[in-house]
């Protein structure tokens, strides 16, 4: 993925959904748990050294799996690189659940599924496509049919 480092640093300074100092172990063999300030902004998980303002790194939370580990610990693995596993140690089970929930809800995939679900439900209840009033229906790839099934439009000819 290509990115602009300055824009990424600027994004890391935006208000976060959740942030805390957590134990973090990277995906390399021999990596040890280090205390990092971890911050979730949109669908990026930024991590910082506890005494610095610029992130050490960032994880784009797309096509990843969040799993509960032993104790107040969770891990993030990426579907295309299952061996690339990041482990995060929280202070409590409750904090661990909060982080896992926030990370799952941060992905574009989750938001897209919710949009489709609620759009279909509104269409079912009202008979109207809620996005029509914004002129989005013709441009959007997924359309709600009268049978409440999602139809993928062929956009290759557009």
From TrEMBL:
<dbReference type="Pfam" id="PF00169">
    <property type="entry name" value="PH"/>
</dbReference>
<dbReference type="GO" id="GO:0005769">
    <property type="term" value="C:early endosome"/>
</dbReference>
<dbReference type="InterPro" id="IPR011993">
    <property type="entry name" value="PH-like_dom_sf"/>
</dbReference>
<dbReference type="GO" id="GO:0007032">
    <property type="term" value="P:endosome organization"/>
</dbReference>
<dbReference type="InterPro" id="IPR001849">
    <property type="entry name" value="PH_domain"/>
</dbReference>
<dbReference type="GO" id="GO:0042147">
    <property type="term" value="P:retrograde transport, endosome to Golgi"/>
</dbReference>
<dbReference type="GO" id="GO:0005829">
    <property type="term" value="C:cytosol"/>
</dbReference>
<protein>
    <recommendedName>
        <fullName>Pleckstrin homology domain-containing family J member 1</fullName>
    </recommendedName>
</protein>
<dbReference type="GO" id="GO:0001881">
    <property type="term" value="P:receptor recycling"/>
</dbReference>
<feature type="domain" description="PH">
    <location>
        <begin position="15"/>
        <end position="108"/>
    </location>
</feature>
<dbReference type="GO" id="GO:0055037">
    <property type="term" value="C:recycling endosome"/>
</dbReference>
<dbReference type="GO" id="GO:0005802">
    <property type="term" value="C:trans-Golgi network"/>
</dbReference>
<dbReference type="InterPro" id="IPR045188">
    <property type="entry name" value="Boi1/Boi2-like"/>
</dbReference>
